[in-house]
Amino acid sequence: MTDLFSKFDPLIELRTNLLAHGQEDPFNLVMERVISPTEAVCNGRPTILLGTYNYMGMTFDPDVIEAGKQALDDFGSGTTGSRVLNGTYAGHRAVEDALKEFYGMDHAMVFSTGYQANLGIISTVAGKGDYIVLDIDSHASIWDGCKMGDAEVVPFKHNDIEAMEKRLKRIPEGAGKLVVLEGVYSMLGDIAPLKEMIRVAKDNGAMVLVDEAHSMGFIGPNGRGVAEDQGVLDQVDFVIGTFSKSVGTVGGFCVSNHPKFEILRLVCRPYVFTASLPPSVVHTASTSIRKLMHAGNKRAHLWENSRVLHQGLRDKGFQLGTEKAESAIIAVIMPDLEKGAAMWEALLKEGLYVNLARPPATPANMTLLRCSLCAEHTAEQVQTIIGMFERAGKAVGII
Amino acid sequence: MDRAATAEKIAGIIEPFNKKGVEITDASTFAGDLEFDSLTVMDFVAAIEDEFDIIISMNQQAEIETYGQLIDAVVKLQG
Ligand SMILES: Cc1ncc(COP(=O)(O)O)c(C=O)c1O
Asked: Does ligand 1 have an atom closer than 6 angstroms to the CB of A242?
C-alpha cells in the first residue's frame, strides 16, 4: 500500500533488519527504576548509566527534590497557560533571576524546552534579508530555528574559522548577521574555538549566539560554559541553554545583555504560544542552578572522570571522537551501524547504558557509542566501565 | 562571467565529486543522477562558493535541483 507513510519504508526496513539479528532495540529501552544519577534498572537489569546528560548529578539532590515538592504543595501541578497570559508565576521570575546571577547577565528568558529556546530566538532575531551563518554540525533545534525563520541560512564546515570568515565577508553590505555556534558539540564531545570565532564574527559586524547546552554547570571557572572558559562570554550576545542536562529537570532559556532583549517576550512565538513550565519544574531548576554556582569540587571530579575514561578506552584500543577529553562526552567510533548496535547490546548485557548515535544525527555518517559522564560516577565505577568496554569490545570484535 | 565560461569552470569543479563518472548534462539532478549525499553537497557548494566568491544560501540551494539550474544560479549570483 502506498500512502503518506511510504517515505519511511527504508527506515522501517533498516530497523526491522537490525532487530532481526536478535538485538534489543537501542531506541526503545525502558528504565524501570532509577536508583541514582548513575544507576538504574534497564530492561530488567541493574545498569550503570553512562548515556544521560545528568552531568552534575542534580536529579536526586535533596534540596532540589525538596524545592519541587514544596512547589507542588504551594502552587499546584501546572500553570495551564502561556507565560504572557496566566503562565508567569513567582517561580518563573525566580528561575530567571537565578539564571541572570549564574551568568552575570542582565536578561533571562525561560522557555518550556531548550529546543524551543533555539527555535524561538533564532527565528525571531534573524528575519527576512538577514543572514544566519552557522556550523554545519549544529543541533537539530538550531537548524529548525533557521527553517522556521525567513533569514538566509549559510552553513560552514565544522569549527572551520576560515570557512566562517569567508562567508561572513561575502554577505551583502548592510544585511543583518547572526553567527550561531555551540560550546560543546554533543555528538563527538569536541569544543569550538570560540575565542577566535567570536573575534572574527565581531570584526565582521555579526551578533553571536552560542548554545551552551552541554557545558553549563561544568565547563568554565563558574560553570558558565565554553565561552567563559575561553574568556569571551562578554562578547556573546545570546547564550542558549537547557535545564534538561546539568540542571537536571526540563526547560530552556536564553540569557543576554542586549538592552532591548525583553521585547522578545512579545514577539517570540515559541515563547508566547505554548504553556509555561510547571511550578515544581521551575523551583527545582532555580534551586539546582544556585547550587551549580558553587559546585567547583564536583566540576573537578567530573573532569577527572572524563579524562580517566578517555585515557582508559584509548589504551584498550578504541577509536575516540577527540584526541583528548574536551568535555563530559566521550564518543567511541564504531566501524558501522551493525557492529555499533551489537556493541551497544553487549554493553547493556554487561550492565552499562550508553547512547547509540547514528546518521543523520551524527557527522560524517558515523555510528557512535556516546558516553556521558556524571560528577556522581565514582572512580571505581569508571574503572568498572572500562572493563565492561574491554569485554564487550573483544566479544563483538571491535578491539 | 558569461554562462559558457561559468559552465566551463563548474565542469572542472564537479569532476572530483562525480565519483561514478556519470555523464552530466544541464538536466542532471544532484540527488538522483549524481547521487550526492548531504556531505558531498556541502563540500561541493563550498568549492563553488570559494571559486566564484559568492554565497549560495541553503534557501537558494533548495531551489537548485539540476546542474543547469546551478549554472544559472551562479551566473546570477555573480551579478
Ligand atoms: C546543543 C543542544 N541544544 C539544544 C538542545 C535542546 O534541549 P532540550 O532538551 O531542553 O530541548 C539540546 C539537547 O537535546 C542540545 O544538545
From this structure: yes
